[in-house]
Amino acid sequence: MSKQVAAGPAHWSSKIKFMIVGILFGIVFVKAEIISWFRIQEMFRLQSFHMYGIIGSAVVVGMISVFLIKKFNIKTLNGETIIFRDKIFSKGQIYGGLLFGLGWAVTGACPGPLFAQIGTGATVVIMTFLSALAGTWVYGYFKESLPH
Q1: How many other C-beta atoms can be found within 10 angstroms of the C-beta atom of residue 71?
Q2: I need a labelling partner for 33 at 20 to 30 A (CA). Which of 4, 50, 56, 99 fits?
């Protein structure tokens, strides 16, 4: 008697498309030098336009994407409606942004490229990854008492 595995949402093969996109995204990060500590330092020292151009391009692509999603009522791959909710500004966003930028400048890494940096052999970035996990845990623990 053969054992059949349900191909439901919990099955690993349903997640393969996300793994492929993640790998391709990592390759793009490496080729575009987004993961380069030197490029990140150039950005924070205002010595090069490279990273600002990439970030600016991403913002423009994001704006166009949101516009098209709203205009044509585009749905997810599963057919779900995409809902955009208004965000309320708070001073905690200023503190969080400053803390994020400080960490980015000191470590030369932000959360997206961490995995690509580790994948290219920069194993010292594992400490940055573990620090990011610890920071996320601390935020979750103290979330209710933080300024939001």
Answers
A1: 8
A2: 99
How far is it, in rounded angstroms, from Cα 4 to Cα 2? 6
DSSP, res 81:
B
Amino acid identity of residue 127, one-letter, is M
Helix 111-119 and helix 125-142: axis angle, to 10°?
150
Rounded Cα distance between 48 and 121, Å, is 25
* Tens-place pLDDT, residues 64-89: 999 999 999 999 988 899 999 998 99
Neighbours of 107 (CB within 10 A): 19
Q: What pTM did the predictor assign? A: 0.71
Q: C-alpha angle with apex 22: 115 to 136, nearest 5 degrees? A: 50
Structure tokens at 78: 């599963």
| Annotated domain spans of the chain | 13-48+86-145
Both tokens assigned to 129: 């990854």
